[in-house]
């Protein structure tokens, strides 16, 4: 079938049937696209609502994250304040330590040769003896506390002891002055010597 365009007859190489088939195919594609577009347009409000729900859930989570971040920031600020206090205390302690070092450094330098000599000449036996002596200090303290009242009375006994010593000297002089005392003394010493030899 020929095509007539502006009074001019054109040849129809494809044929009218082919053209019609192609037109129907294009129409079907157009109708299919319209149906798909219509379905999409009909489901769009539901999708938008679901999207809004997801956005709302996401915003709730974001709010929680922000609250947690605020709490963390508050804790960090408290920790920073505590750290500042620690730093201030450390600064004071450091200043005091420096003052003590300045005070004791000359003494330490002066005592270092004597301390080194003392340590070099200290044997293990002397260290053990010093430890043992320190262990005995509590008992020694108890004995000293018991002995102090007795020592406090010695100043009142001292004149009597002095007088007793004088009397003893007088008695000794008197005994030595007895005739024959030397003989008896020598005889007594000999007898004591014999008894000691017998015991041996």
Q: What is the chain-wise order of helices and strands?
A: EEHHHH
**Portion of residues within helices:** over 70%
Low-pLDDT segments: none
The strand line-up of the biggest sheet is: 1-2
Number of E-type strands: 2
Overall, the morphology is rod-shaped
Describe the oligomeric state of these chains in a short phrase: single chain
How many helices? The count is 4
Percentage of residues in DSSP E strands: under 5%
What is the first-to-last residue Cα distance?
170 Å
Radius of gyration: 62 Å
Account of the protein in words:
The chain has 200 residues and is mainly alpha-helical. The protein has 4 helices and 2 strands, in the order E-E-H-H-H-H. It has helices at residues 16-120, 124-152, 154-176, 181-199; strands at residues 3-5, 8-10. A two-stranded antiparallel ribbon has the order 1-2. A hairpin with a 2-residue loop joins strand 1 (3-5) and strand 2 (8-10). The longest helix is centred in the middle third of the chain and has 105 residues, at 16-120. The mean pLDDT is 77.
Task: Offer a quick outline of the entry.
The chain is mostly helical and 200 residues long.
Tags for this model:
single chain; 200 residues; mainly alpha; two-stranded antiparallel ribbon; 4 helices; 3% strand
